Structure prediction request, 184 residues.
Amino acid sequence: MCVFGEIDCRVHVLRQAEKYGGDFRPVIDGITSNYLEFLQYVSRENPVYVWGPVASQNDSVEIDTTYPRYGAEVERNKATEYFNDRMKEICREHGFKFFSIFSSLIDSNYRTKYEYIADTCHLSQRAWEFVTEEFRKQGIDIAFMPEDKRPSPNKSGRGLWRRIRGRLSSYKPVLRYYFRKLLC
Prediction:
């Protein structure tokens, strides 16, 4: 499962759009086109799943250099919606599965619903209901993981991260190539 686009939508898209005319759609079209190239490479040997970015941080939250942002919350959420729509379309065209709970995390005015945010930036456990529903819609039963083994806010998940990192290490040269390409 590939998870990308959140930092693009939170920081880079609106900044780049401002430099090049104001419309974020062409910026996102370029980013998603680059991601497609990466997904096609990965799909040669693996089934591909894509997780779309979630709703953006509230404007009233003090800016933290750890999680920078650019532009207004509503505009970031509109850019995120477009990003998710483009990725969903790309995934449908190429036979990849796309998952997103974005629409459950915003109101009709494109404001983030903060009852689903844990720490001004990350999802809370309350959002789990949307995650399980999204997976079920895609025909994936997430009950494969026993209740006592599921991640909780108090568990670090470091063992799982080590296993994932080990699997990804074979993709490092490819990932490096695509990330450099995305940044150029």
Observations:
- The chain has one domain: 2-183.
- The chain has six helices and three strands.
- The helical segments are 6-19, 24-42, 73-94, 128-137, 158-168, 172-183.
